[in-house]
C-alpha cells in the first residue's frame, strides 16, 4: 500500500528547523521531497547543538534525522524553474543563496497550480516583514517567554529551551500545506500560504491571553510563580507531579497526609493554594523515592511521570515497550519514531539522509513534466475542509485545538459535552460559580471553540449512548482525547465505531498512547513536557527544570491535525475507515528529538542554561529602565546575535565601545567563551534605557531584539494588527473580544476565519437531535431525564440513581 502522499512532489527551498521539519512530515507521509541546496550545502548540515565536530563531507545528526527520505539536488536558474513547474508544492524560507533568489509571490503567480508555503519570522508583508529575528526573540515578542507565569519573580523570565518555536512552526506549515492541498484537489488552484513563525509561537506558547484579558478585564497571571509541585527533587532523583484540577489538588493534599490544606471555599487558584504550602510539600517529596511516589500518585489518579532528558528517556519502560525510538538507518544515533500511528496506512520508515547533490543527475534526467494550469475559476468555497462532518469528543486544550483548526478551515464540528462533565476549559475561567451563567464566560473555551456546534449528551446512560451511536453514523470523523479506558468502557472503540459508519476516521488523542504501562495515566500538558524532555531544557542550571506549561497541548493538536489529514487522503484514495492514534507524548518526543539525537550521536547531554542557547551568542534577557504595568522594575528585552554580521551591527549600534571591538569577540566561538563579559556590558547599557529605545536603536541596525511582552499585550504589536491575526468575535453572553486565528495569510483564502462564536452549553441540542430524526417529544424526554441539558448539573445516570 502506498503512503498517502505518494506522487506528491514538494520542492524544499528551506533552511533551518522549521522548514526541515515541515518537509520531513510531508516526506514521512509519502511525498517526494526534493531538497534544493546551494553548492556549499544547507547550513543545517553543519549544525550540532552541543558543538560536536562534524567531519568534512559528512552531515550533523539532526540534519540526517530531518532530511531522511528526501532527495538532494544542487541547482538554480532555469533548471530550478523546471522543477517548480513540475512540482505540486514549494516550501520556502529565506536564508540560503538559492532561496533568496526566489520570490514566493512570483512563484505563486507564475505557477498557479502550486501550493507555495513561505515560512518567515513575521510574514511576507507588514511593518516588520524585513526585521531580523531568531526563535528566541520571537518567543519574547509572542509573550511565550513569560508564558502563563512560568518561573519565579526573583530572576529574569526563562524562555522555553530547545528551539521549540521552530519545531511547532514546522508542524503548522506541514498541516497548512496538506489542508490547502485538499482544496487544490477540488479545483486545481494553488495557494500562497504566508506563514508567520511569530503567530505560530503565540498559538503554541501562550494560552489565549488576549481573549482572557479582554473578556475578564484582567490577565491570567500578574507574576511568575513556580508550578507546585511540578518537577521536584525526590530522594533518588527528579519526579514530576501535577495538579490540573481542584480534585487533583485535593487528592495531592490527601496523598501527602495534609487534608487540612484542602479549602473548598477558597477564592485562591490551585497554583496559589499550592504555593502556600510549597515548602512543606517539597520537604515531603524529598523524603520519598521516585518509584514509590509515582505508584502512589497513580493510585490517587494524580498526573505524574519521570523527568526525561536526552540520556534517560530512551530507556523508560513505556517508551521501550511502545517502540517510541528507532535507530537511524545510517547508524550512529537514535531518533524518535513517527509522532502518530495510522492503521492500514503506510508511513515512510526512517530513511537515510541524502549526501549533498546526491540526486542532481537523477532528478535532472527525470525531467518532471510541467503540471497543467488550473482549468476554470477557483471554487467559490475557499475553505478546504467544507463538507467534512466532525464529532468532537474532546476537552481542555489538546483535542479542541485540533478540531478548532478543522472548524476554521470549513468543517462542521459538533463539540460534545455533558451537563455532568462540561468541557474542562469552561471551569477554569476564575469566575465564581454563583455568578449568572458563569460556565458561559470562560475566555479559554471561547478561544478554542468558535465555529463549532454545541451538543450535550450523557453517554454514561443507555439513552445517551443510543443517541451517540446515531450521531456517529452521520459523521466523517470522530475525535476523542479521553484516557483509553473511558472509550473502552462505553463500547466505542474503533471496531465498534466503523460498524456505525463506513469509511469513518477515528482520531484518538490519548496522553501516553493506547498501549504501554502508562496507558491509563492521566496526562496534562506539563506532565507530557516533563516525560518527553521538553521541560529539561527550560530554566536555570542550579534549579529543577521549569515546565513550559504551554507547548504540550497545542503541539499535540497540530500533530494530530497532520495525522488526520493523511488519514483523509488515504480514505479519499481507498474509501477505507482509518484509526489514527496521535498520542500527546509521541508528538512531544518528536519536537524534543534533538536531545536524544545529540546524546546518542555525540555523547552530549544538552542542559538548560537560563536564557542562553546554542543558536546565538550573545543570547539573553536584559532588564530595561521601564516600570511594568504592575509597578515593578520587571521589564526586559531579548537580544540574540546569530551571525558575525549581526555582531558587527550590534557593535556599531552601540557606538563601537572599546570592549565590543575586542578581536576575540569577532567569532561565535569567541563570543560564547566570553558570554559573561558581554552580558555584563549589555546589561549595563540596557538598564538606563527604555525597552522602546533599546529596540529602536538595535533593530533597524540589523540586530535581532525584542521586548519581552506580557502575553495579554499581543494586540499592541503592529505586525499582528496588519495581518489581522486577531478577529473580534461577538457572543450572546460575553462582550465581543479579539480571538486569535491561524498563523497564516492566504492569497485566495477566506477573508475571515471566525464566523460564529463558541457555542453555549447544549446550544444546538434541538437542531442536531432533530436532524437525527428525534421528535420534539423525544428531545423533551431526554432533557427531562438529564441526558441533555443547557446548564451544569447532574447527568442522566446520576438522576436515575437518585430515583
Short description:
The protein has 803 residues and is an alpha/beta fold. The model is unreliable at 799-803 (pLDDT under 50).
Describe the protein:
With 803 residues, this protein is of the alpha/beta class. Among the domains are: 243-302, no CATH class; 618-703, formyl-coa transferase, domain 3 (2-Layer Sandwich). The chain is built from 31 helices and 24 strands. Helix 2 links the parallel strand 2 (32-37) and strand 3. It is globular, with a radius of gyration of 26 Å. The N and C termini lie far apart (55 Å). One of its GO terms (molecular function) is CoA-transferase activity. This is CoA transferase.
CATH topology (fold) name of one domain: formyl-coa transferase, domain 3
Q: Average pLDDT across residues?
A: 95
Number of strands: 24
CATH architecture grouping of one domain = 2-Layer Sandwich
Organism: Mycolicibacterium diernhoferi
InterPro entries: CoA-transferase_III_domain, CoA-Trfase_fam_III, CoA-Trfase_III_dom3_sf, CoA-Trfase_III_dom_1_sf
Keywords: Transferase
GO molecular function: CoA-transferase activity
Amino acid at each position: 500500500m502506498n503512503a498517502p502522499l505518494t506522487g506528491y512532489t514538494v520542492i524544499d527551498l528551506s533552511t533551518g528547523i522549521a522548514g526541515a521539519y515541515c518537509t520531513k512530515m510531508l516526506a514521512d507521509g509519502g511525498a517526494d521531497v526534493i531538497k534544493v541546496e546551494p553548492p556549499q550545502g544547507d547550513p543545517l548540515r553543519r549544525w550540532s547543538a552541543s558543538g560536536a565536530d562534524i567531519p568534512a563531507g559528512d552531515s550533523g545528526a539532526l540534519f540526517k534525522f530531518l532530511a531522511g527520505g528526501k532527495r538532494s539536488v544542487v541547482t538554480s536558474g532555469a533548471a530550478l524553474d523546471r522543477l517548480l513547474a513540475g512540482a505540486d508544492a514549494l516550501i520556502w524560507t529565506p536564508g540560503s543563496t538559492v532561496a533568496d533568489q526566489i520570490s514566493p509571490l512570483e512563484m505563486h503567480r507564475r505557477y498557479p497550480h502550486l501550493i507555495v508555503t513561505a515560512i518567515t519570522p513575521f510574514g511576507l508583508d507588514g511593518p516588520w516583514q524585513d526585521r531580523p529575528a531568531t526563535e528566541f526573540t520571537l518567543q519574547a515578542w509572542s509573550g511565550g517567554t513569560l508564558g502563563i507565569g512560568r518561573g519565579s519573580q526573583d530572576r529574569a523570565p526563562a524562555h522555553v529551551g530547545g528551539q521549540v518555536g521552530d519545531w511547532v512552526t514546522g508542524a503548522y506549515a506541514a498541516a497548512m500545506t496538506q489542508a490547502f492541498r485538499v482544496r487544490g484537489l477540488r479545483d486545481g488552484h494553488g495557494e500562497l500560504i504566508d506563514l508567520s513563525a511569530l503567530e505560530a509561537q503565540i498559538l503554541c506558547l501562550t494560552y489565549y491571553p488576549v481573549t482572557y484579558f479582554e473578556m475578564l478585564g484582567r490577565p491570567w497571571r500578574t507574576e511568575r510563580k513556580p508550578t507546585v509541585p511540578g518537577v521536584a527533587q525526590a530522594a533518588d532523583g527528579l519526579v514530576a507531579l501535577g495538579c490540573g484540577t481542584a480534585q487533583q489538588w485535593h487528592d495531592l493534599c490527601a496523598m501527602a497526609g495534609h487534608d487540612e490544606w484542602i479549602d473548598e471555599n477558597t477564592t485562591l487558584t490551585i497554583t496559589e493554594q499550592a504555593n502556600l504550602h510549597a515548602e512543606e510539600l517539597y520537604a515531603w517529596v524529598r523524603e520519598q523515592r521516585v518509584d514509590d511516589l509515582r505508584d502512589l500518585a497513580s493510585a490517587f489518579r494524580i498526573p505524574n511521570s519521570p523527568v526525561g532528558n536526552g540520556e534517560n528517556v530512551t530507556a523508560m519502560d513505556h517508551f521501550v515497550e511502545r517502540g517510541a525510538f528507532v535507530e537511524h538507518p545510517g547508524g550512529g544515533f537514535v531518533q524518535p519514531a513517527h509522532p502518530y500511528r495510522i492503521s492500514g496506512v503506510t508511513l515512510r520508515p526512517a530513511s537515510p539522509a541524502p549526501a549533498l547533490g546526491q540526486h542532481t543527475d537523477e532528478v535532472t534526467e527525470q525531467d518532471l513534466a510541467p503540471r497543467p494550469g488550473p482549468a476554470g475559476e477557483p471554487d467559490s468555497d475557499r475553505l478546504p475542509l467544507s463538507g467534512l462532518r466532525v464529532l468532537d469528543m474532546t476537552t481542555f486544550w489538546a483535542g479542541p485545538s485540533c478540531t478548532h483548526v478543522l472548524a476554521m478551515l470549513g468543517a462542521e464540528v459538533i463539540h460534545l459535552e455533558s451537563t455532568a462533565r462540561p468541557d474542562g476549559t469552561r471551569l477554569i475561567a476564575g469566575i465564581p460559580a454563583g455568578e449568572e451563567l458563569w460556565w458561559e464566560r470562560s475566555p479559554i473555551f471561547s478561544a478554542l471553540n468558535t465555529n463549532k456546534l454545541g451538543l450535550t449528551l450523557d453517554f454514561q446512560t443507555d439513552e445517551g449512548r443510543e443517541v451517540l451511536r446515531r450521531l456517529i453514523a452521520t459523521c466523517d470523523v470522530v475525535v476523542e482525547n479521553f484516557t483509553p479506558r473511558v472509550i473502552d468502557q462505553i463500547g466505542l472503540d474503533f471496531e465498534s465505531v466503523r460498524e456505525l459508519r463506513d469509511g469513518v476516521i477515528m482520531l484518538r488523542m490519548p496522553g501516553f498512547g493506547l498501549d504501554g504501562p502508562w496507558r491509563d495515566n492521566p496526562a496534562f500538558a506539563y506532565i507530557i513536557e516533563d516525560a518527553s524532555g521538553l521541560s529539561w531544557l527550560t530554566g536555570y542550571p542550579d534549579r529543577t527544570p521549569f515546565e513550559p506549561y504551554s507547548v504540550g497541548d497545542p503541539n499535540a493538536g497540530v500533530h494530530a491535525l497532520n495525522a488526520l489529514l493523511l488519514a483523509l487522503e488515504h480514505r479519499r484514495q481507498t474509501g477505507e475507515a482509518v484509526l489514527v492514534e496521535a498520542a500527546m507524548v509521541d508528538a512531544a518526543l518528536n519536537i524534543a528529538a534533538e536531545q536524544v539525537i545529540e546524546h546518542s550521536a555525540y555523547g552530549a547531554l544538552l542542559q538548560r542554561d537560563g536564557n542562553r542557547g546554542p543558536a546565538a551568542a550573545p543570547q539573553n534577557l536584559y532588564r530595561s529602565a521601564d516600570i511594568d504595568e504592575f509597578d515593578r522594575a520587571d521589564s526586559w528585552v531579548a537580544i540574540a546575535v546569530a551571525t558575525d554580521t549581526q555582531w558587527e551591527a550590534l557593535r556599531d549600534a552601540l557606538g563601537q565601545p572599546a570592549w565590543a571591538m575586542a578581536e576575540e569577540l569577532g567569532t561565535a566561538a569567541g563570543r560564547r567563551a566570553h558570554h559573561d563579559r558581554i552580558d555584563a556590558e549589555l546589561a549595563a547599557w540596557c538598564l538606563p534605557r527604555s525597552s522602546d529605545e533599546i529596540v529602536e536603536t538595535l533593530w533597524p541596525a540589523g540586530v535581532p531584539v525584542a521586548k519581552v511582552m506580557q502575553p495579554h499585550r499581543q494586540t499592541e504589536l503592529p505586525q499582528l494588527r496588519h495581518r489581522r491575526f486577531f478577529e473580534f468575535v461577538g457572543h450572546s453572553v460575553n462582550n465581543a473580544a479579539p480571538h486569535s486565528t491561524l498563523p497564516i495569510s492566504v492569497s485566495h483564502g477566506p477573508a475571515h476565519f471566525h464566523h460564529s462564536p463558541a457555542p453555549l452549553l447544549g446550544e444546538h441540542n434541538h437542531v442536531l437531535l432533530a436532524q437525527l430524526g428525534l421528535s420534539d417529544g423525544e428531545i423533551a424526554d431526554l432533557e427531562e431525564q438529564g441526558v441533555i441539558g443547557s446548564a451544569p448539573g447532574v447527568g442522566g445516570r446520576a438522576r436515575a440513581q437518585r430515583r
